[in-house]
Amino acid sequence: MKLFYSLIIFSILNNVNCQLLPPLPSPNLTFIDQSLALIFPIIQNFKNTITLDPFGVTKTWTGPDICNYKGFYCDNPPNNSSAISLASIDFNGFQLSAPTLDGFIDQLPDLAIFHANTNNFSGIISSKISNLPYLYELDLSNNQFIGTFPMSILNIKTLTFLDIRYNLLTGIIPPQIFLQYLDAFFLNNNNFIQKLPDSIGSTSAFYLTLANNKFVGPIPPTIGQAPNLLEILLLNNLLTGCIPYELGLLKKAIVIDVGFNTLTGPLPCSLGCLENVEQLNFAGNLLYGQVPEVICSLKNLVNFTLSYNYFTKVGPLCRELIENGVLNVEKNCINGLPNQRPILECVLFRMRIKLCPLQKSLRIIPCNISKFSPHRPERHLISYSALSKHTKLY
């Protein structure tokens, strides 16, 4: 009979899909809170997966005092003001290498902030991170993550800051991401290829950087509906079509950069309504016609770049900006100005000009120019900082 039961037990064990559990903490360790005791083995397991630690960071990851591990920060969880738990991780600049973060950050239930700029983490971004109820800042920039956009991010309702720039991500981004309540969204320097969705106009973001990808097609006219946009960077993509009149409706905008695409047509006069704008970059496109004087009358302009286009005329206000070093019109087709394109190249371009579908809208000025505010001092521009790999944004 004993043999019979032994055979049954053996059979059951061989047909169970066993899952290895993390080791329990040593009974000799004393933690200041039970929640820290529970995540101790998770941290130690992750530590064992790290293949490179040039600054010896993980040497501090020993013993029960997790709150003093380098890069780890504790606080009271939102649901228990008397408890102590791991609330934040900042690995920025540590240059750690590990094949995956799966099984690490997604197992830290009270994590609110995870920053890991400038490391060598790879694999895909785990779908399990959507299980973190308090996560509101996620920075995975300048790593080696592969695969498509992590769709699970759409399920993180608390997220307000997302930075996945400088990775190896491909495919498309879901239109729903622009419906998330994100304050800042950086996904520049990946390999996303698609048309910009109309939902971009629904973004609540203040900072939106989509530069250095492979976005195609026109800039959606809905962009003018984005209520909070301060800085938008679309440079170095494959955008085509004419610049929409609605771009001039971004009344709060301080930076607009659509340089080095293949956009064409005249500049819309509506851009003269961007009373707060400091940086306007349209360089490296196929734009033509006269540079609207109403844009050159903007009081806060610090840098207005139109180089490497096919503009043919500038008025007195624009010439004043050129003299002051604010407006750059090199490599255009403007008679009498230095460093312009060869005449033959300008003639050949004019022979193949195609008018914009809504040409009349480009002459509309939907604002009262006389009510503009006085000049404000130049400030630090967050989105341009995103174009530098190693910059910590927040």
UniProtKB/TrEMBL annotation:
**InterPro entries per record:** Leu-rich_rpt, LRR_dom_sf, LRR_extensin-like_regulator
Query: What does the UniProt keyword field contain?
Result: Leucine-rich repeat, Repeat, Secreted, Signal
Q: Which Pfam families match?
A: LRR_1 (PF00560)
Q: What is the annotated localization of this protein?
A: Secreted
Q: What residue stretch is flagged as signal peptide?
A: 1-18
* Organism of derivation: Solanum lycopersicum (Tomato)
User: What gene is this protein translated from?
Assistant: LOC101258205
Q: Name one GO cellular component term.
A: extracellular region
- Name of the protein in question: Leucine-rich repeat-containing N-terminal plant-type domain-containing protein
